[in-house]
Write a structure and sequence with these properties.
Blueprint lengths: L19 H20 L4 E6 L6 H14 L4 E4 L8 H5 L7 H7 L8 E3 L4 E4 L8 H6 L1 H10 L5 E4 L9 H6 L4 E7 L5 H10 L5 E7 L4
Parallel strand pairs: 1-5, 1-6, 2-4, 2-5, 6-7
Antiparallel strand pairs: 3-4
Helix pairs in contact: 1-2
The structure holds adenosine-5'-diphosphate and magnesium ion.
Length: about 210
């Protein structure tokens, strides 16, 4: 599927070359991830945050683009089943997402979209999924990821906010580490503490500070 520059969300800074200054933090993160992945199992990354609007989807897609530029094979799984937004930010449309593929008994590859010219795969979610916890806990999901894993260097999982659903915690089981997106001026210290306490701290790889005033 071809991405149209005019339809991309302006915050998807890693999708173009306009401002190297804006892409630099993503490139640094890419270098850290690739070097860390050389010495430990670090293929599946959960991108989590406290609440809506923190920028999980933006960070996930930018990181995917930066990894793709570094010639990594990347899959983004849109696993915010409450408010999926990857397709909206990318300005694309697809009638078949992960949940639709499952419902129709199709292989997940039938729902996967290859995004050009940036060069990564997206497993989209088209509409809100009512039984998201059921899907995430299902053996089907586990088997699907096991089958997909060998084809990719990194699989990034977008997720629902930690304070909105148990979904991100269910995704911990399927992933190797967690990246926490923190919105500057967003959640209160109490909310942050509550959200972090829900996560397994040993798996926490680091944090991405988003919405930073420049
Ligand atoms: N660093 C940023 N500065 C300003 N706006 C941002 C930034 N990151 C994301 N946004 C905007 O905030 C909105 C919510 O971002 P999104 O990634 O969808 O959040 P989430 O997935 O955590 O709910 C989007 O419209 C996006 O363009
Ligand atoms: Mg989102």
């Amino acid at each position: 599927m071809d991405l149209r520059p005019k339809r991309l969300d302006p915050r998807l800074v890693a999708f173009n070359d306009f401002d190297p200054h804006l892409i630099a933090p993503y490139n640094r993160l890419v270098i850290s991830l690739i070097s860390a992945a050389a010495s430990r199992k670090l293929k599946r990354l959960l991108i989590a945050s406290t609440q809506y609007g923190d920028g999980r989807t933006t960070v996930t897609l930018n990181l995917a683009a930066a990894l793709a530029r570094a010639r990594q094979r990347v899959l983004v799984v849109e696993s915010d089943f409450l408010r999926p937004s990857a397709m909206r930010l990318l300005g694309i449309d697809s009638a078949t997402g992960l949940a639709e593929a499952v419902a129709k008994g199709l292989a997940p590859s039938k729902a996967m979209v290859w995004l050009q010219p940036i060069g990564f795969n997206l497993l989209p979610t088209c509409a809100q999924v009512e039984n998201s916890a059921e899907l995430l806990a299902s053996p089907f999901f586990e088997v699907m990821l096991r089958n997909l894993s060998p084809e990719f260097d990194f699989i990034l999982f977008d997720s629902a906010p930690l304070l909105a659903a148990a979904d991100a915690r269910l995704l911990e089981r399927h992933t190797d580490a967690t990246l926490l997106v923190i919105r500057q001026g967003g959640a209160s210290t109490n909310q942050m503490a509550k959200a972090v306490s829900l996560l397994d701290e040993d798996r926490l790889l680091g944090a991405v500070l988003n919405h930073v005033e420049s």
